[in-house]
């Protein structure tokens, strides 16, 4: 698949000595939704700022649409949209005028029909004459998206796009982002909401302390690093895992009343489920009674936490 953004060896060290990016390599495919996950301070916003011209890298290269950003920054930036994490904007301006002004910043002529289309798609048309300061937090965030879309970007960065909005509005915005992809826009989003990446992303990258820990197809990542987990509630507590269960990846929890299994080959793999079945047979043979079994496949969040803890190989 054609690449729309190529980042190679990107580093950023600030004047005070803090290194925010450490040799980042990243390739973004045209037309995909790519989710960049990481804790606070991981380097997500710095990486976006470097691509959008808000942060000057210390070293490394950025190529967008096949051209060097350092050489052709002005023309390439006009093809990129950014929805920033912070809500700061022209609060006393009406919505319609503010979004139209954003289009003009990139040297494009007025296009009332295009602006109306964007505002209607984001359920902002009825608010077009309202000052931005009068809107709710969720609506203000929609205005930021509208402003970023006003110049028809081919590549759109969304930095924590649903931070501070309620669940219903968040899901509505997910639908809007999916529609952008259907129209051919490549979307890169950073998020703290793991379910956001799990719901929308084609591929997922994990960044921590300025380094990319992993980039993979979402489903492939879950299949490769996911695990089956089973919590078996015992009718009588055990002091230790008996030798008869030593072949299984199990441990004891809650004062010996819960037997914890974690193994298998991940999402969609029956190995873990089959092994849990064998484990229950072994419990029966050993005369160990149990009253309940809670079994589930690990989520993207489990994998993310494991990566940050250094537990995933």
Written overview of the protein:
- The protein is α/β, with parallel strands linked by helices.
- The protein has ten helices and 14 strands.
- It has two domains: 3-222, Rossmann fold, CATH 3.40.50.300; 227-297, Alpha-Beta Plaits, CATH 3.30.70.
- The protein has helices at 44-51, 73-77, 95-104, 112-121, 137-149, 167-182, 194-200, 218-225, 271-285, 300-309; strands at residues 3-13, 19-29, 33-37, 59-64, 67-68, 80-83, 155-159, 186-191, 203-208, 211-217, 228-234, 250-253, 258-263, 290-297.
- The strands form three sheets. The protein has a six-stranded mixed sheet with strand order 6-7-8-3-9-10, with helices on both faces. A four-stranded antiparallel sheet has the order 2-1-4-5, with helices on one face. The protein has a four-stranded antiparallel sheet with strand order 12-13-11-14, with helices on one face.
- The model has no long low-confidence stretch (mean pLDDT 86).
Query: Would you give the CATH topology of the largest domain?
Result: Rossmann fold
Q: How would you state the average pLDDT, rounded? A: 86
Radius of gyration: 24 Å
- Strand elements, count: 14
Helix content: 25-40%
- Low confidence ranges: none
Instruction: Give the N-terminus to C-terminus distance in angstroms.
Output: 27 Å
State the fourth-level CATH superfamily of the largest domain.
P-loop containing nucleotide triphosphate hydrolases
> What is the name of the CATH class of the largest domain?
Alpha Beta
The strand order across the widest sheet is 6-7-8-3-9-10
Q: What series of H and E elements makes up the topology?
A: EEEHEEHEHHHEHEHEEHEEEHEH
Structural class, by secondary structure, is: alpha/beta
Count the domains: 2
Shape: elongated
Q: Profile the largest sheet.
A: 6 strands, mixed
Count of DSSP H/I helices: 10
CATH architecture of the largest domain: 3-Layer(aba) Sandwich
Strand content range = 25-35%
Keywords: ATP-binding, Nucleotide-binding, Transport
Domain ABC transporter: 5-234
Protein name: ABC transporter ATP-binding protein
Organism: Novosphingobium mangrovi (ex Huang et al. 2023)
